[in-house]
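Take a specimen:
=====
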Amino acid sequence: MRNKKFLCVVLFNVFFTSAFSQLPTGFVYVNDVIPDLDVELHYHTSNNFVGKPIDGYYSNKLILTIEAANALKQVHEALQQYNLCLKIYDGYRPQQAVNHFKKWARDLNDTINKHIFYPNIKKRNLFKEGYIASKSSHSRGSTVDVTIIDANTGEALNMGSKYDFFGKPSWVAHDGITEQEKANRVLLQNIMKQYGFRNYPKEWWHFTLRNEPFPNTYFNFPVK
């Protein structure tokens, strides 16, 4: 009887873990693959263009497809040879978060962080100019928002604009930045490309894995 009771407890624990903690097949927590990776999910905080935590982000846990995580590990290890590391601002993004952006965009009076993230663009034009989309590659699980940091200090290299700044200073080919800032962008672009990622030209931080495993699927499980 005691053994049966113990077996029931084990089976319950297995079921609970499977039902509530396990990611969909093909996804991983990236810190299980890259334990020393610096992760700061801005949409889990109020430090973003909306000015509040975004729907679907319940923890600061980076989730990606297995393929994207393994490719990112190669980038991270290559940078460490130069005493540099990666820092991640976003990875998998549930569709509910994208829907939150869409709802926020319809309220033209809600501009609490305009002066920080989109000072020179009218809010009504954020979709038209390609800074927000109704479907995001992030929801397919193989896109990351990333920068490079100094391994000793943890300070991010200067890329010429802040993360998630909507405007030409964030365009990869923008010429109005210093030579050092250009060199930092080139380093990020080249090393991400070397390990299988392609960039979105209007955002120096945005990269999607080539040959991503779910090119037509937009997931909606939460980040937790």
In short: The CA atoms of residues 172 and 204 lie 5 Å apart. The first strand starts at residue 27 and ends at 29. The beta strands are 27-29, 38-39, 63-65, 84-90, 143-150, 197-200, 203-209.
